[in-house]
Amino acid sequence: MAGAVAATCAFAGFNVAAPKFLGDATDAVVDGLMSGRLDQVRLAGLLALVAGMYIFASLFNWIQGALTARSVQGLMYGLRESVAAKLHRLPAGYFTDRSRGDVLSRATNDIDNIAQALNQLLTQLISSCLLLVGSLAMMLWISPLLAVIALATIPLSTLVTVLVARRSQAQFDRQWNETGVLNAHVEEFISGHEVIKAFGYQDRAAEVFGRSNDQLARSATRAQYSAGMVQPLMVLISNLNYIAVAVVGALQVIAGAMTIGGIQAFIQFSRLFTQPVGQIGGLLNLIQSCVASAARVFDLLDAGEVPGPAQRRDSGRPPNARKVPDGRIAFENVTFGYPDAAPAVRNLAFTVEPGQTVAIVGHTGAGKTTVVNLLLRFSEPGSGRVTIGGVDIATLPPDRLRERFGVVLQDAWLFAGSIHENIAYGRPGAAPADIQAAADAAHVDRFVRSLPEGYDTILENGGEPLSTGQRQLITIARAQLAGREILVLDEATSSVDSRTELLIRQAMKRLLHGRTSFVIAHRLSTVRNADLILVMDHGRIVEQGTHEDLLAANSYYTGLYRAQFASREIRPGVLEPGL
After folding, report:
1. Neighbouring-strand partners of residue 350
2. Which residue from 43, 58, 178, 230 has the least number of CB within 10 angstroms?
3. What is the pTM of this model?
């Protein structure tokens, strides 16, 4: 009975008279039982007091759980918002150096693991710390000598926890890194599902997954085993502490320095004191798992951003105050290369006047798309600079810079939503009539009308159920609707048939009129009417000029043309109408 009262008194933080009250109550109950004159009224009052304490303790535990859940979820909401915002600010190079599955794991699995760990840790740690402080205060009040003996085990417990944590933390780090690798494999298998089946790669893919899964299981087992050593060691130390307190307490009772009720109350408090120490040790696996996941999330949040160091070249005004100027676009001796690789482009130097159409051609891997990435600041030059109206774009806010560009990339990207929403992505809030006009210009309307749901057809998994060519037509309609001053078409017609390509070129001719535009193309028929054609080879501009001038020069461009139209006579003006 006294033990129950002691526990609730320690948790609820009762007044300093509690130890004397507990000892006197225990002694009175013992004396009453021995003499046969038990004070039932006093016993009933004591039971009512204990019942009231338990009721209040349960109520406070419920309130604590509700507040903890609300606080943790609020914290995780903010962390997810920070991660989402960070992903939009990261340069393109960050995603080329890491698998998408690992980045996805950091943004989902690791944050969920932090949330689950905090939900358990906060509740447990708060109650454990309160119980630790309360029971220690009671122990010091009852018997300072016995309290010193009980405290002697704390350094030993701390040493054991530190030694085990030092060994197991590396295992938890490896566990969550392996989780990211496993997610990367799963993402790769899902995105390449058709290719895997087409080449009969299922068994090999299962083998790769099995190896990754085995490594994750091994690292997780080692982590849990290492951290799990703390709990039994804490129990052993707690039992040794109990024996020491019981022996010294018995000697105190024999010497008349303490009563039986007092020593019984102290032993109960000593058990309450060692209980949270053992619980905290038992939570070591959660703590270290949370730390490992937090390290991965904050590694993402601390990654370098665009514009980064380039902001220091600004004129002194805040980046958001800089407006994107009008005027010519110039590449001034720009060189760029990926880490541990040869430069993708070298010493690029050319100028584009407002309203000009510039075509960039060359073999695969020549560096054409890299030029666009530098222009949009998806990548930063290693040397040289890119200017608009004489202003280095490295000093401009990336978001404001990209507001000037309408882009159709080689890989058609559509999000989960209706066709109408995907086209309207180019200009949020656009009127239905404008969306219809953009769809007509890009020849989207003719196949959308044949769908049962029309423009309300829901697209999933990157654009299903549409074909690759139809998806690319929608991205062209999106750029048409955006109506930006500068257009970038990166192989915009690479996935459509010849007839559709001709229709798109006619639509693009209207779209490009009066706008500065960059057209990347392998099909030379699409760039015949460009104001300037840049011919690239191994990252360098080897030729530039108009279509007729380059054919007349009978050089590298002529060779590219011969490779595509070997059966035709190579003469200026023989190609079908282009942009």
Report:
1. 331
2. 58
3. 0.70
